[in-house]
Write a structure and sequence with these properties.
The protein is an alpha+beta fold and 293 residues long. It has 6 helices and 11 strands.
Length: 293
């Protein structure tokens, strides 16, 4: 893959800096030469035949993102395809909204109130996405960016798909993956609820839940959900987790989809109530300090 440096001109955008790398991609901070608008530019290139899936993911991400318009979801502006020959696409450039902030894995919420506020925003964005007929399918701490004002934005729709999709291969992040993703069952709204629950679990305990994937991405060897290990309550690792928040998180990571909250809107509304209660309690204490995660 060609690596660009500051000052290089790429498809009408001037490179300012490299800001990230993926399995077969590099993301640059760029400026549109004509409009002077600042963007993030994701360059995906095919080095081997195995890299076709990364090109497919990038194109799928664009197709889904172009149908969405929500302040909690990163906007994708355009997709530029480069071909070798008449038909074969061998690299893509995806122009994306620049999201200025830190990911939750690098800068977790410092208080339970902050955690409720961040995840309430994420749940609201996911609820909108579900209403449009899509699931994110890879919710995890590093796919949530929070800016200096506490505004959260969901990024990376590379594994997103229409609700009900059965994927050809296992996709997801091992520490956050839902049983139905591992066992290649239909991906639904409740898959995102599980992924978000696993993310919230980590945020308040700094521990990951056990999932249907073993260490090293190896299958546990069973598709019987009844024998899968259940996560311990968050309060066993952090006794200060508020009861209402612990209850919600543990419901979200239920192995049986029927036992999870009905919709992501329900999750968002419950987080709103939790945040309100925590703020009210803090006001009553009149201490001006917050319980820390």
């Amino acid at each position: 893959m060609q690596i660009y440096k500051a000052g290089d001109l790429v498809e009408g955008y001037r490179v300012m800096a490299e800001i990230g790398r993926g399995a077969a991609s590099i993301i640059y901070l760029v400026q549109d030469v004509k409009t002077k608008q600042i963007w993030a530019l994701k360059h995906v290139a095919k080095e081997t035949e195995k890299d076709d899936r990364f090109l497919d993911q990038a194109e799928s991400e664009y197709q889904i993102a172009s149908k969405l318009d929500h302040p909690g979801l990163r906007r994708v502006e355009r997709l530029i395809k480069k071909k070798s020959g008449l038909l074969t696409v061998n690299e893509l450039y995806m122009v994306m909204e620049l999201v200025d902030g830190a990911s939750v894995d690098k800068n977790p919420p410092r208080t339970f109130e902050q955690a409720a506020e961040v995840f309430e925003q994420v749940a609201d964005a996911m609820s909108y996405m579900h209403a449009k007929g899509f699931v994110h399918a890879d919710m995890k701490p590093n796919n949530i960016i929070v800016d200096a004002h506490g505004h959260a934005k969901v990024i990376d729709l590379g594994q997103s798909c229409p609700i009900g999709t059965v994927k050809k291969r296992i996709q997801g992040t091992p520490d956050y993956i839902a049983p139905e993703q591992v066992h290649r069952r239909p991906i639904t709204e409740k898959t995102d609820i599980y992924n978000l629950g696993a993310t919230m679990y980590w945020a308040v305990t700094r521990r990951n839940i056990p999932t249907a994937l073993g260490k090293g991405d190896s299958l546990t060897g069973t598709i019987d959900d009844s024998v899968l290990e259940r996560p311990k309550p968050t309060t066993e690792y952090n006794p200060r987790v508020p009861e209402m928040l612990d209850k919600l998180i543990m419901e979200c990571v239920e192995i049986d989809q029927a036992d999870r909250p009905d919709t992501m809107r329900v999750v968002a509304d419950r987080l709103t109530l939790i945040r309100g209660k925590l703020l009210a309690e803090a006001e009553l204490r009149r201490s001006g300090s917050f319980r820390r995660v």
